[in-house]
Amino acid sequence: MLEKFCLFCELPLSGRVRAKEDVLPKWLLTHLDLKTSDRLRGVHMSDLGTRHRPPRVQGAHTILQGAVCEKCNNQWMSDLETRVGPIIRALSLGHPLSLKKADAANLSTWTFKTLALYNITTNYRPLVALTDFRHVYRERTPPPGRHVELAYLSEAVPTTFATRMSPIKFLLLPSNSNKQDIARRVDESSFVITMQIGKLLLQVAGLPSFGIWTRSDERRDDVFRIFPQIPDEFAWPPKRNFDGSIDSFNASVGMRLFFDVPN
């Protein structure tokens, strides 16, 4: 049997060293009033509405990740939950809040860590590379080439919980490019993972691993980026609400290719 290692610190997992990490922390389930008997239904759809896999229904308290060591779980990850928990609760309810740079940095790390773990714990194909988890452990920030963004749904029910996952689908490519090959490589090396917690939308976008890309949706003023451009300070709720749903939020990431790097 192959020895398993912690996703974050790479410590060998055996016996009591191994923890069962609550991907959705207990404070969040309590905040959303999700009880032990509540079931979360994960349906993974393409941008055209095609179902990729049958729905996976899990109990709210059974979304556990076993590839995390006890030390990571009980130390830096626990400290991060303590710092971010009150912020998430306030943002999800739409309470007025002024966040400093340290708050935004902690929130971006928590968002990336939580959505990355959620992806590899569901029945959707893994979208996040192991190197991303190890970067979070070493640097306590999301990796380069990853964007973390927020949006506000003013009309949402405060106890709403939902997720969406997909590769990046909206691409602007040079006219002389091999569009089919590029689309295949983007599908293999990019991701958008989105979560709704009450009135708060959270999103991580992983840019393709090849070529030189820029976001084609940069000018949106209803989506607020907190990584890698960590703001010195920002007020919540934002001046402009997100005009859509978690589905449109997940599909809103567009990429423009400036320069391709052949295989």
Structural features:
263 residues; five-stranded antiparallel β-sheet; three-stranded mixed β-sheet; globular
Descriptive account of the structure:
The protein has 263 residues and is α+β, with helices and mostly antiparallel strands. The chain has one domain (15-259). 29% of the residues lie in helices and 27% in strands. The protein has 7 helices and 14 strands. It has helices at residues 26-31, 70-74, 76-93, 101-121, 130-139, 179-189, 246-250, and strands spanning 18-22, 39-42, 56-59, 64-69, 97-100, 146-152, 161-166, 170-172, 191-197, 200-206, 212-215, 224-227, 233-236, 254-259. The strands form 5 sheets. A 5-stranded antiparallel β-sheet has the order 7-9-10-6-12. It has a 3-stranded mixed β-sheet with strand order 8-14-11, with no helix packed on it. A hairpin with a 2-residue loop joins strand 9 and strand 10 (200-206). Helix 3 (76-93) crosses helix 4 (101-121). It is globular and about 55 Å long. The relative contact order is 0.16. Residues 47-51 have low confidence and may be disordered.
Give the topology, please.
Blueprint: E1 18-22, H1 26-31, E2 39-42, E3 56-59, E4 64-69, H2 70-74, H3 76-93, E5 97-100, H4 101-121, H5 130-139, E6 146-152, E7 161-166, E8 170-172, H6 179-189, E9 191-197, E10 200-206, E11 212-215, E12 224-227, E13 233-236, H7 246-250, E14 254-259
Parallel strand pairs: 8-14
Antiparallel strand pairs: 1-4, 2-3, 5-13, 6-10, 6-12, 7-9, 9-10, 11-14
